[in-house]
Amino acid sequence: MATEPSMAPMTLTTVVASTRPGRVGRSVADWFAGQAAECDQFESHTVDLRELALPFFDEPHPPALQQYTKSHTREWSRIVEASDAFVFITPEYNGGFPAPLKNAWDYLVVEWRHKPAAFISYGGVTAGTRAVQMAKQVVANLRMLPIGPTVSIPFVNELVDGGAFRPGKIHEAASEQMLDELARTARVMRQLRSGTH
After folding, report:
1. How far apart are CA 42 and CA 13, in angstroms?
2. Is 83:158 a contact under the CB 8 Å cutoff?
3. Collapsing DSSP states into helix, strand and coil, what is residue 12?
4. Which of 22, 46, 93, 155 has an alpha carbon within 20 to 30 A of 192's alpha carbon?
5. Please, what is the Cα angle at 96 between 90 and 101, to 5 degrees?
């Protein structure tokens, strides 16, 4: 008996936005990977933009045409196309998000459509929340659906010990709430993409 599309495991892609030396984003992502692994509705994996190493957008054709000429674009397209939901882990740079994250979004158009986006932000007193507000405008323009629940981590450096992020109970609870909302939204949007109701 075939598995209904709405019941098959969904693919969750977590994107690490910061690429700079000394970043804490990867340690936050490693913690979140453990949280996501406990959510049986998702098959989860992490994409680190530093490792992906996309150059600044270098395709000769508009991304909406999907006429890709570069191997790095085709690989990124494959990853995003295969994903049902996204979590973007971002710091805040001057009230916004890092340039590599915007660049990663700009490479593609069609592959992002009708997929939910969630955010984990970190920083000092503002916890990266202004970056998330700006990011939600961008993903909405890509016809993604930014969900309400987020994870905000103020004073993140105080929670990093030996290179590992040590969350508090409030972060774990927020992560669980975000994953629950993300799974429910992703299930509905998968049906929307497949044309089933």
Report:
1. 9
2. no
3. strand
4. 46
5. 50
* Interatomic CA distance for residues 142 and 106, integer angstroms: 9
**Residue with tokens 């507000």, as numbered in its chain:** 133
Residue 13 parent element (H or E): strand 10-16
Is the pLDDT at 6 greater than 80, yes or no? no
- What's the half-sphere exposure (Cβ side, CA atoms, 13 Å) at 139? 23
Tokens (6 digits) for 70? 């570069």
Q: List, for residues 28-81, the tens digit of each pLDDT value.
A: 999 999 999 999 899 999 999 999 999 999 999 999 999 999 999 999 999 999
Contact 25, 16 (CB under 8 A): yes
Residue with tokens 């323009």: 141
